[in-house]
Amino acid sequence: MSLWTRLTGWFALLFGLGYFALPLLGLTEFSLRARRGVYSLDAYAKVIADPEFQQTFLYSVSMALVTIALGVFLVLPTAFWVRLRLPAARPYVEFITLLPLVIPAIVIVFGYIRLYNTSSWLPLTGTIMGTNFLLAAGYTTLALPYMYRAIDTGLRTIDVATLTEAAQSLGAGWTTILGRIILPNVLVAVLSGAFLTFAIVIGEFTLAALLDRPAFGPYLQRIGANKPYEPFALSVITFIITWGCMGLIQLANRFTTYTKAPR
Amino acid sequence: MPAHQPGRKRWRLPMNWLGLLPFLLFSLLFLILPTMHIVIGAFQTRDGSFTLQNIRDLNTGTIPSSYWISIKISFASAVLGCLIGFGMAAAVTFGAVPKWIRAPLLTFSGVASNFAGVPLAFAFLATLGPAGLVTLWLRSEFGIVLQRDLGFNLLSFWGLTITYLFFQIPLMILIIAPALEGLKREWREAASILGASGFQYWRMVAFPILFPSLLGTLALLFANAFGAVATAIALTGSALNIVPIQLYAQIRGDVLGNPHLGYAMAFGMIVVTAAANVLYIWLRARSERWLK
Amino acid sequence: MSFLEISHLEKSFGPLRVVKDFNLSVEKGEFVSLLGPSGCGKTTVLRMVAGFETPDTGSIHIEGKDVVRLGPNARKIGMVFQAYALFPNLTVSQNVAFGLKVAGVGKAETADRVREMLSLIGLPDLGDRYPFQMSGGQQQRVALARALAVRPRVLLLDEPLSALDAKIRVSLRSQIREIQQRLGITTIFVTHDQEEALSMSDRIVVMNGGIAEQVGTPFDIYNKPTTKFVANFVGTLNTFSADVTDAAAGRVSVGGTPVQLPAAVEPAKGDRIGLAFRPEALHLGRAIGREVTLPAVIRAVNFHGSVIRIEVEAAGTNVALDTFNRADTPPPQVGDAAEVSFSARDVIVLEY
């Protein structure tokens, strides 16, 4: 390894790290400026005490949980079934799961608004529950590529066919097979997908704003226009949540390598 | 399933496909139909007859310039993201810097590539905005005013590009690091023992192998930036006239005065990102074919 | 000085000394194998000759010049890797032409040489294929052609057959040897497979723990191993323990049966020694020319086709011996009483 290569390597790395560090530093510093002259946690205190924050945050967390549940119920049986019985359908299913990466979220939600408006055949946007459901479905769609890939990778590491046959020969039904045989074996993969979904949903803006739901993303954008320091504190909190989700994914994956090591 | 019943076999195939019904129904309702509605709407008049007028109307008013600036920002952030991300991934993969940096860098990339949207906009406002950390520091230490002396404004082409890089670079690292890892040590050694210099190895072997991945990732980053809405809105409000912002405004209040022109605009977005993604998938399949 | 002269080579990775005082002279045109278990340092020696590793001390001379300070791309050496290492983005022809292109050889000459090399390896029509379109055996032959195209001074083969199927391995083995002899190219071959080493080499270096344990022809290595490690690592070995009755006269006793060895036993070796045999040196039943006979019990019979390997218990130990299959003689049954015979001339005396 020549000196020149080493130097360029270090330069690229340090330049990049500097680029990443500065905005995070700036964000944190700004969020502490609420009291004139000294650093304080005033902005955080104010934000956390804000009932609207509590409501929107709770709303987004519940949305994330609903999305995760919906995603797992939708993706796990599908991925399982494709692996077990319909390998021929695999390319098509994979293609569909990749579509949300191709079609921008704003286009999808635009379609929802026009397709499910109050005068349509399925007036989902007419009621609050309907809109909530539409939002959850939209989030599930956005998370579909990640959820499907995570779970499918998990299923690849276990022998789906043999496990299923073994369970069937012991008299298990489909619910038992999925819930008590397959799910525990791919739990780590499911958790990875779940945490990623959580990270995507918690700060999501476009869908929530256009469907006009009181979620955390639009709230953050709205107070950004009105309050001086609070939005920065909220951004720090969001970053920490994202970081926490990724950390949990890493932790879950490390857990797998331990359980799989003896093989 | 008892195989000896002759009538059952005929029903097996449809039964199998029935297992996919929930998934297919869901994707039809919440992915395909809404998208089709937009696409079809782009070719319809208000009373439902077929027309190309909406597509033609895309060439009016501020729409062409908004597409153009969107494409420019997406392309610039994709190219820069590719270059910087490649440099960082190469530095940790080829041992220019200690190996232990690799794992934390990849974890961080996972975080940063998901840290888009509104909070990211605030991070850059707090850093390069009028009262941002770097802005104030440059003014107090060097007497440089970003806006006045360097012509830099966060609510501009370069401002948005620099902000987008925050998720573009990590995405590049996440995608290209495995590809770099896939360059076998033996290839370098084989080239070297056949008399090639390091530069010749890169020119004749490593770069051609990586090229499809690089170009494919470029396309993916482009699509990624092109569809980004939240960061742009939170950062610029409506100061910068890019496609997602215009479409956002159109959805909220029909600012174009013609809903079907909105469809056409959304359709244009799909065309651009789909073209980029088709390029990505095609190039990726090509590079995987080699590396099988 | 020989064509390739390696002297006093040493290499450590951290605290681990992987090569210790390694010496080897290779004549022009010779095929030398480095044979040993994994981790014995054979690959490290090869990589130092190639220039991928720098020795801590010692020298490597090719045609009288020390190459230790030269980079791999200046040594004019050809190398074939275990995992083929063909460039996936280039066709077969382009792979073979790579070294020539880098060296600036003209187009016409390159095309001629590529054609020559492809016919040498027996794949004259596959020049336009990509590596991923070929089988492992074909890829490895292309790798050989690529290494040979630049007319290297030395050819290094790093376990080139290990990744291949058993059948292809055997056929490629003889093909490589044939090409090597036709071109008369000096070759160093690294392998952990004793059969490959025995069948292909002019000479074998058996390595263990970074040391060359024995250097010799395949015949010598197999029949006259000088250390216990070599005797055990190369081929299958049966060992009887024997009591020394008269060291100077070479008289010992195996389970009560007296055996007269062809040479004296060193008295320093104590009163017990090991007598080792190859399976083919033991014979089931009595035979002319095998003067020692031991009573035995059949313990296992493994039918391999043309050869039957029989395990018997004799003189308190289990030993293996081979007999040829004969259609008119069924193999013995497990538990049968039998006799085994051998000749003291075939004995390899091991110290305990």
In N-to-C order, the SSE pattern of chain A is HHHHHHHHHHHH
In round numbers, the mean pLDDT of chain A is: 85
Number of domains of chain C: 2
Count of alpha/pi helices of chain C: 8
Q: What is the CA-atom radius of gyration of chain C, in angstroms?
A: 25 Å
Q: Largest chain interface and its two residue counts?
A: A-B, 81 and 80 residues
Keywords (chain A): Cell inner membrane, Cell membrane, Membrane, Transmembrane, Transmembrane helix, Transport
Protein name (chain A): Spermidine/putrescine ABC transporter permease
InterPro entries (chain A): MetI-like, MetI-like_sf
Membrane topology (chain A): Multi-pass membrane protein
Write the layout of secondary structure elements.
The complex is a heterotrimer of chains A (263), B (292) and C (352).
Chain A: H1 3-31, H2 42-49, H3 51-84, H4 90-102, H5 105-115, H6 128-156, H7 160-169, H8 174-185, H9 187-202, H10 206-210, H11 216-226, H12 230-260
Helix pairs in contact in A: 1-12, 2-12, 3-6, 3-9, 4-6, 6-9, 7-8, 9-12, 11-12
Chain B: H1 6-18, H2 21-41, H3 53-57, H4 63-93, H5 102-114, H6 118-128, H7 133-142, H8 146-150, H9 157-181, H10 185-193, H11 198-226, H12 230-236, H13 243-253, H14 259-291
Helix pairs in contact in B: 2-14, 4-9, 4-11, 5-9, 6-12, 9-11, 10-11, 11-14, 13-14
Chain C: E1 4-13, E2 16-26, E3 31-35, H1 42-50, E4 57-62, E5 65-66, E6 77-80, H2 92-103, H3 107-120, H4 136-149, E7 154-158, H5 166-183, E8 186-191, H6 194-200, E9 203-208, E10 211-216, H7 218-223, H8 228-233, E11 238-246, E12 251-254, E13 257-260, E14 272-277, E15 283-284, E16 292-303, E17 307-314, E18 317-324, E19 337-342, E20 348-350
Parallel strand pairs in C: 3-8, 3-9, 6-7, 7-8
Antiparallel strand pairs in C: 1-2, 1-4, 4-5, 9-10, 11-12, 11-14, 12-13, 14-20, 15-19, 16-17, 16-19, 17-18
Helix pairs in contact in C: 2-3, 2-4, 3-4
Keywords, please?
heterotrimer; B: 292 residues; mainly alpha; MetI-like fold; 14 helices; 76% helix; globular; disordered N terminus; C: 352 residues; alpha+beta; Rossmann fold; OB fold (Dihydrolipoamide Acetyltransferase, E2P); 2 domains; five-stranded antiparallel β-sheet; membrane (chain A); transmembrane helix (chain A); cell inner membrane (chain A); Spermidine/putrescine ABC transporter permease (chain A); MetI-like (chain A)
